[in-house]
Please model this.
Amino acid sequence: SAVELLRRAPLLVATPHQSSTADSPTFQQTRPLLNITMLATIGYGVASFVIAFVLAALLGSDGGALSKEFPWQFRLAAACRTPVLMLIVVPLSFIRGKYTLARRRLRRYLRGPGGKAAAIRHAAHVDSISEQLRAWDRGGRKRKLRTARSNWAAMSTKLGSNKEECNQIALGHMNEILDVDEDGLTLTCEPGVTMGELTDELLPLGLMLQSHIEMESITIGGLAMGFGIETNSHKVGLFQESVLEYEFVDSHGRRHSVTKDQPELFYALPWSYGTVGFLTSLKVKLLRTQPYVRVEYLPTSSAAELTSQLQRLAALGEGQAPDFLEATLYDRDNAVIQAGYFDARPSTAAPLNRINVWYKPFYYRHVETALRSGAFQESIPLQHFLHRFTRSIFWELEDMIPFSNHPLYRALWGWLGPPEVSLLKLAQGPVIRRASVYAHVVQESIMPLWRLPEGIAKFDDWFGAYPLLVFPVRIFDHSSETGGSSGLLTPRAAEIEQGEASGLWVDLGAYGVPRAVREGAVWDAKENIRAMEHWTREVGGWQALYTDIFCTPTELRQMFDFSLLDKARKRHDGVDAFPEVYDKVKSEAGISDLSAELAAERAAAKKGTAAGRRSQSAATSVKSPPRRRSRSRPRHPSSSSSTTTNSS
Model:
């Protein structure tokens, strides 16, 4: 027995005056007992794991609901998904998260708070990148350049990286905060710094990024070269509007510092995905904060009411408009607007709610209660608010672990946190990855705000996945600074408000399992996503490129304005050095077969047919709406007729 083993334990400890423990009579007598105890412990552990695995699979998996059209490997993975996540991926994510947190805090403690030492280290970091590039340059510039970062670690839907044939440059050491200017309200840091690190650094100082993105593992470099939006974007625009200075190294190893004094290059860099050079540091704007956010929850019962309320709130003047504005759409009609205002302390009218405590309901489920109880308000600590969707991965976690919001799961498992997105991707194989594109949707369309009711109806037809994310965003027109283009996101002149240099758009995001898949049918990802892409181009919007895209290179260029980026790539010898944006954001081979579409484009271009001419002008094929009025006088344009959804 265990008691007997403990009684004899002192006899098992060898001393300098004893012979080997293994040769002692006492050890020989207790060895069988020790072996039995170890086997029993292992047996109990294995039995417990198997019971928990089977129970979780029975309670949480939906592999049986999937169409038989899916590969058996994918259906098996779906059946085992919940227990694998719950018993393996979530604990590993917890361990990895604690390790990462301890490492970055130790690193920050050892490095100190910026200053001259940080500048010296940064210069050495840049020199190491420049030397790698000069060596590649001397070697004949034979292969395209990419970062050495594994794609599974990136915040995108792609598993493959399209990097296999490229020369990979090590940038993993570029992760230091270089300077926080509390008086000038600026931050300078290297591109590998994450939102979680910036939260830890800035909030104790009463500061935050002008656009402080909610997912903690996203890097600031990814936001600057790609896409970043937050719930204060209705006031300050996308993340790119907060950037004051870019520092990058070109393909020859030369270091460049770019500000608005060089507008053509400055506005070419957002959404360029590192196709001009390697980003080495950023200087961005900061905001002063209050400790709490007072959130008003306002339910709406139609898409038209939702749009009208968002227009009204976004159009309020300085000091009246919410500091944060978003909505969550729970079905085609019902939504809850969340209007947030900085506040110094909770009040009786707005009691304190620490929404990210591990045993609390997921935030989006808490918001949903406003549909039943009516409008209410509460005060949320700022850090909780900024990362309000981390625990539930927006609303994706309930698709993976259906009972993850149940009080019992939250009580027993909630403290472990969610599975890391990077580990979720790492666990996929090629077969599961390909099948998942046709069983799961992650798509965002940025459209003019007045188009939102039409967009909601189309998202319901294309995807039927709820909730939907609704983020109003102000898109700024910088064409007067460059002489004709604002960069890849150049808004149509008709959408710019009179007397303003901007207009209101809205980001509509779908994350989850499409309705058809839930019903056991087949959902055609290619057909539906291409329809979304075509409609988004027609209405003067843009698609988020971290998702799986199904457009051709020509169609991508119809959606985005590449004129400034093409100039920058030529001027800085990036054409032969870096892949095109399309080649960096497209899905890995085997996900989307566009051979028919590419052949049709080539045939149309060769013959010079009318179809070819229509394809080349698709981005401007929809009649423009009346020019928007100023933000103080919002209205619905009368010309909001629906447009075709056929894929081009």
Remarks:
- The chain has 25 helices and 16 strands.
